[in-house]
Amino acid sequence: MLVPVLVAGLAGCGGNPRAPVEDRNRPASSARPPVLQSQRGPAPGEYRVVRGDTLYSIAFRYGFDFRALAAANRIAAPYTIYPGQTLKLREAAPPAKPVRASSPAPSTGVAKTASAAAGGKPSAVTKGSSGSGKTGSPAPARKQPAPAAKPPAPQGAVSRWRWPSDGRVIRGFSATVHKGIDIGGNRGEAVRAVADGVVVYAGTGIVGLGELLIVKHNDTYLSAYGHNDRLLVREGAAVRAGEKIAVKGSSGTDTVKLHFEIRKEGKPVDPLRLLPKR
């Protein structure tokens, strides 16, 4: 009886080993699922366009000249941008300023516009005696050149600024802290364009300014109107100086007021230096 039992035991030892048992209660140490990398945000010095942005509003937000921002990102007029587009927030070389036509240098002789003598040649006047031999006649006073015609206003000039709203200035300008002026008043009062221009931004995308309008007056000057209750014009609308473009309110703040800015080549300037005295 003992021999069969030993044989059976040896036969059991010579079979295939059992498969290892997996402990399902212990977390696997390998074969972790791949971690999906989230979409990379914009790098330092970059900005990702969101719905409602315009090139002008982005330039305004970061204090760039819109032309410099467009040049840095190779964006041509009319400066269309798209949600998800990444812009480099660096200034390109500032655009060359147009050379103003200088007045002609005063001539040392007779002006070329003077009338010609009978012989068809311009008459020349010399000091001393005349050609007839007569002496004592004083030489006629040399004619001054005719004043040059007044050159046209440069592209960046605004012929006349107007106040954007009635009301008292309740906060002044600071280039670093408060880049415009605040004008107090009552809710519902008119907000008007300070000069002719085109609306290049209308919306609430710039934090802290509520319902905001930005108007481009020319390639040099922009004006901005913040904290409105209601905007009366849309992006792309041409506006005239003095035209009602918004209604004064308190959007984005706790006080009824108009926050007003003027930017020259992207940089804030004190509006009180440009607006007429009152």
UniProtKB/TrEMBL annotation:
SUPFAM superfamilies: Duplicated hybrid motif
Pfam families: LysM, Peptidase_M23
Entry GO terms, CC: cell division site; cell outer membrane
Gene3D superfamilies: Glucose Permease (Domain IIA), LysM domain
Domain LysM residues, every copy: 45-89
GO MF entries: metalloendopeptidase activity
Ranges where the record places region Disordered: 16-45, 93-161
PROSITE patterns documented for this protein: LYSM (PS51782)
Bias type Low complexity, positions: 135-147
PANTHER family according to UniProt: MUREIN HYDROLASE ACTIVATOR NLPD (PTHR21666:SF263), PEPTIDASE-RELATED (PTHR21666)
Family membership: Belongs to the E.coli NlpD/Haemophilus LppB family.
Name of the protein this chain belongs to: Peptidoglycan DD-metalloendopeptidase family protein
